[in-house]
Amino acid sequence: MIYKQIDTDYLVLGLDPGKVNFGWATYGGEGLVDTGVVEGMDNVKGLPSFKERFGNLFHSISPNICGIERYRLRPGKGASQNMELVNILIGHVWTVCELQWVPCYLVDPSAHKSWTSRTFKVELRKQKSKAKIKKKYDLRTYEEWKHLKTEHEVDAANVAKYVYDYLLPKEKKKNGN
């Protein structure tokens, strides 16, 4: 498929899909523009309602590029049902982007989160698990994200910034722009 020319002045829509809360953020040349959460779906019967909510959001924003966090399986959290539902949501987003000729990047969570922690000041926090204490970077401590209300908005904003600041310049260089 032939997409619009990629230009770093474009508006990026970053998405953090979740079964209950589907975070979104827009990022452009002036930085973070807006964020929010769209209600996900509890089961497949909720897809028509999600399609309408997401379609309205997408068309009101009119993004030039979309970045969506890939969903990773997390054991013990209703994983198989969550994974199926979230992947259906991701598939719908991808289809909307394809139909609108908007490039869509699937972004691995570790890629955008580790990029931020290497590039910007982000605090390390201790997280207790059953076996041990793990250290994890807390993206909510990044100065530009401190005011955001939910973790989904933080992740969506981070995906959008990652696409805008990191992936687009690489894509432009690869295409000789």
Please, could you describe this protein's structure?
The protein has four helices and seven strands; from the N terminus they run E-E-E-H-E-H-E-H-E-E-H. The protein has 177 residues and is α/β, with parallel strands linked by helices. The chain has a single domain, classed as Ribonuclease H-like superfamily/Ribonuclease H (Nucleotidyltransferase, domain 5). The strands form two sheets. Strands 3-2-1-4-5 form a five-stranded mixed beta sheet. The protein has a two-stranded antiparallel ribbon with strand order 6-7. Helix 1 packs across helix 2 (79-99). The radius of gyration is 16 Å and the shape is globular.
Overall geometry: globular
State the CATH topology.
Nucleotidyltransferase, domain 5
Name the CATH superfamily classification.
Ribonuclease H-like superfamily/Ribonuclease H
Task: Give the strand tally.
Answer: 7
Placed side by side, the strands forming the largest sheet appear as: 3-2-1-4-5
Gyration radius over CA: 16 Å
Main beta sheet: strand number and arrangement? 5 strands, mixed
CATH structural architecture: 2-Layer Sandwich
